[in-house]
Design a protein that fits this description.
- The structure is a single chain.
- By secondary structure, the protein is an all-alpha fold.
- The protein has one domain.
- 75% of the residues lie in helices and 0% in strands.
- It contains four helices and no strands.
- The longest helix is centred in the first third of the chain and has 24 residues.
- The N and C termini lie far apart (48 Å).
């Protein structure tokens, strides 16, 4: 039996758990909207969309570190599931940028 009463769903309600996911999904929406409006042509200079994507992706790193530092020891099973979800969200945001060479 699991000693920690926290389950996956209430665990995800903590800001340090869901903020990185929301930030990654927001970054993905920014990339998709930029592609829909301007296409995938390379630009001479990075625009506002690129800077917002970079800030969102870099800004979630301290939140991820805080979450891992606080919860991996207390509830490793739930924390690792949340961290996996955060990593999948970040990779889904980075995939179009990498694959389309934006």
């Amino acid at each position: 039996m699991d000693r920690n009463p926290l389950t996956f769903a209430p665990f995800l309600k903590r800001p340090s758990a869901y903020l990185p996911v929301v930030m990654s999904l927001t970054a993905l929406v920014i990339v998709l909207v930029h592609i829909a409006i301007f296409g995938v042509a390379r630009e001479a200079d990075e625009g506002a969309a690129a800077h917002m994507w970079q800030f969102l992706m870099a800004g979630q790193l301290p939140v991820l570190a805080f979450f891992a530092f606080k919860w991996v020891r207390r509830a490793p099973k739930q924390a690792l599931c949340i961290l996996a979800l955060q990593v999948v969200a970040a990779l889904s945001s980075a995939a179009p940028v990498y694959l389309l060479k934006l």
